[in-house]
Amino acid sequence: MLEVQDLRTKYVTRFRENVYAVDGVSLKIKEGKSIGIAGESGCGKSTLALSLMGYYFPPLHYISGDIIIDGKNISKLKPDTIRKRILGKEIAYIPQAAMNALNPTQKIIRFIEDVIHAHHPDATKKDIYDIACERFEILGLPRSVLEKHAVELSGGMKQRTVIAISTILSPKVLIADEPSSALDVTSQKMVIKMLRELMEKEYIKVMIFITHELPLLYNVTDDILVMYAGQIVESGTAKQMVFDPLHPYSKGLMGSIIVPEEGVRDHQLTAIPGTPPSLKNPPKGCRFAPRCPYAAPVCSSMEVPDIELPNGRHYRCLMSERKIREV
């Protein structure tokens, strides 16, 4: 359904410096599946989300790699083609703080009209209103929201409304970047429930959920990828990644978060020392080596392979699986 092969993108600063925020990312998601991407701030999660849409504008630039949706490679299409044929229909993106993106002077129905008219210019207002009413009611949003302004909605309602607007054309792929951040627990639960319903009712075929909280992904996605310094350092099922992380960074990420799940909640919290490397000049060897408690001299000089285990898990580390489990 969605396949990404060795994707590389960069930012070019005003001083003409290159920041390699996505460096050699590959992933594959089948129809009906959802994946989560976790990692600390600055690891490249949001840049990966933008890059996956194939829609590049300065300072973000495409370097190489392929993004394939249903056999169609969108990575080399022109921006105008991406905007007219891909965004909203093939792939949709919910950015961070999306609830603040709504124009406070416009009614919600006007945003939906803009989205649909961009792809179906002949659609009438009545047709659009009927489509919007049906979709909102199915997703648990009262049709009265359509005639309201953004300032009349609570934060949780705004976020759910943005999700409904973004998926009104039933895109095949939905990328949700921190969709539950800045919300209270009740609102978070409603947003998660809405995303699940979109998958269950097949309004979207594939979902990518981005957050810095690994445990949250356990309750939302089928598989989890952990990202560090522009690279995917480990991937596996949600259960494997939460209860049995292999990569030292994944272990540190889990150890620094309170997890209420049985078997994990009694673990003592730990912190990952140091800071991520600069992506202007990424270090040789393992990018996590300067912060890794198990690093050896070879880790800072030797190229790190992507190891695939018999059960389908991947991790990027010079240590063997047996040695990792011993430490």
UniProtKB/TrEMBL annotation:
Record keyword Protein transport present: no
Keywords (alphabetical) are: ATP-binding, Nucleotide-binding, Transport
Care to name a GO molecular-function term for this sequence? ATP hydrolysis activity
Q: Is the Glycoprotein keyword given for this protein?
A: no
What InterPro entries does its record include?
AAA+_ATPase (IPR003593), ABC_transporter-like_ATP-bd (IPR003439), Oligopep_ABC_C (IPR013563), P-loop_NTPase (IPR027417)
Gene3D superfamilies, per database record: P-loop containing nucleotide triphosphate hydrolases
Q: Which GO terms describe its biological process?
A: peptide transport
- Pfam families membership: ABC_tran, oligo_HPY
Q: Where is the ABC transporter domain?
A: 7-254
Q: What is this protein called?
A: ABC transporter ATP-binding protein
